[in-house]
Specification:
Glutaredoxin; single chain; four-stranded mixed sheet
Length: 212
């Protein structure tokens, strides 16, 4: 049985849980999940660091094979366990999904993460609200690129659901949440019709709501 370390509130762990659900793999039957990170600790123990020297979640162990980095885990699970063609298998679709997964990590998420952690993890007296607002606005500007793509096709990498939708859907979830919960700090959320329609598709056609 596979083992997955990570708490269910972690965005990167949620990616893996969503992917597993789409693959029809069930907790307790096909894999074991172990709470780790933040209040659960574990990640700084010698045993965990021997698996993942970064001391971060998620970490996946499949028999003797150990893997960390959430997007790498997504690709591994899809390649090994997608028996029913849930994710596109043609090289062009996979490359397009990879493009958006890299974009999530390198372009959109860095500024979005800064704003998110600033408002949800940083103590009130240490928050730099000017920087938080600036980073949120930068992240919002980046989403114009995603919106343009979603106005021409149904999902990030084309007209089929892919791993890219998992990686970006959960990031956009945080973007929406900050505007709803902290409107006085981040300002009014930009309306992106393509993204809004895509999020509704994720809610109705995928396992998004099982983790979000």
């Amino acid at each position: 049985m596979m083992r997955l370390w990570g708490r269910t509130t972690s965005i990167n762990v949620q990616k893996i849980l969503w992917c597993l659900h789409e693959l029809g793999l069930k907790e307790g039957t096909d894999y074991e999940r172990i709470d780790a990170g933040l209040q659960f600790g574990v990640v700084n123990t010698p045993e965990f660091l021997a698996l993942n020297p970064n001391g971060l979640v998620p970490t996946l162990q499949d028999e003797s094979f150990v893997l960390w980095e959430s997007n790498a885990i997504l690709r591994y699970l899809a390649r090994k366990y997608d028996q029913n063609g849930r994710y596109p298998a043609d090289i062009n679709s996979q490359a397009s999904a990879d493009k958006w997964m890299d974009w999530q990590l390198t372009t959109f998420w860095p500024t979005m993460r800064s704003a998110f952690l600033g408002l949800t993890r940083t103590p009130e007296n240490e928050r730099n609200y000017d920087l938080i607002r600036k980073d949120y606005e930068t992240a919002s500007g980046h989403l114009k690129i995603l919106n343009q793509a979603l106005e021409s096709h149904l999902y990030c990498a084309g007209n089929r659901f892919s791993l890219a939708d998992i990686a970006l859907g959960l990031c956009v979830n945080r973007w929406i949440m900050l505007a709803e919960k902290f409107p006085e700090r981040v300002g009014q959320r930009i309306s992106y019709p393509g993204i809004e329609a895509w999020m509704k598709r994720l809610e109705s056609e995928t396992a998004y709501l099982t983790v979000a």
